[in-house]
What does this fold into?
Amino acid sequence: MAVGVSFAAFLAGNAGVELYEAMLLAIGIAIQNIPEGAIISMPLKMQGISKPKAFLYGVLSGIVEPVAAVITVLMINIVVPILPYLLSFAAGAMIYVVVEELVPEIHEGKKSALGVIGFTIGFVVMMVLDIALG
It folds into this structure.
């Protein structure tokens, strides 16, 4: 939805949103979708599904993103007033997942430093994108 709102604001022309800003947000969301697709594909491959089919399922797991963007652009007058509440709910859900599931698993096993490094790199990338979009 955020991508749809940013492109709708650009298309409206009076919201102060430039095309490069909408594109940066779309790129940030796309970067976030890569590990999401991998999380879907890898277990499927381990269960015996072929690589192409597992990859396809991983890609299809992110199909909701562009669909939601298009719907948001079409329904911009309805979505914009409630968008802060929707995004707050999404942020709260993500914080819960990170705190409940991911952070404890980082410290398990012999290669816990690798998990911490990965978490840190992901955090830095998102902060750079936040500043670039800011």
In short: The radius of gyration is 17 Å. Residues 2-133 form one domain. The helical segments are 2-12, 19-46, 51-60, 64-74, 76-106, 112-133.
